[in-house]
Design a protein that fits this description.
two-stranded antiparallel sheet; 56% helix; 2 domains; mainly alpha
């Protein structure tokens, strides 16, 4: 029986991504395909999202929502961690911030969290 080889699988995905890039596929095109593992996308230097959250809420299309959530739109909880996968968590989080806007995010953050955020932004 053949054993599944993760590195071989990744190399196949990376080759497919590079082939599509050589055909003119851009970041958005590749991410919207929802065909590749987060690891393969990272190894090809692709960002987790093409969405750029701004101060005000932005409209998301259903395609953008599908790109930024799991294929079944189900969120899991593994070993005391939501999503169990940092890449999926980050992509969903950026999609939600894109949709709600940075101003709204700041409005709903607790005061202590805002203080922590200010420290991080000021480099302290």
């Amino acid at each position: 029986m053949d054993r599944w080889d993760y590195e071989e699988f990744l190399n196949t995905e990376i080759q497919k991504i590079n082939d599509l890039k050589s055909k003119g596929f851009m970041v958005r095109d590749l991410l919207d395909l929802n065909e590749f593992s987060y690891e393969a996308l990272k190894r090809c230097g692709l960002p987790p999202t093409y969405l750029i959250p701004k101060s005000e809420p932005q409209i998301m299309t259903s395609e953008e929502w599908n790109t930024h959530t799991s294929s079944e739109h189900k969120w899991e909880f593994y070993d005391d961690v939501p999503f169990g996968d940092c890449d999926e968590r980050d992509r969903v989080m950026l999609g939600l911030i894109y949709s709600s806007g940075l101003k709204h995010l700041l409005e709903i953050l607790p005061s202590k969290t805002k203080e922590e955020l200010a420290k991080l932004l000021c480099g302290r």
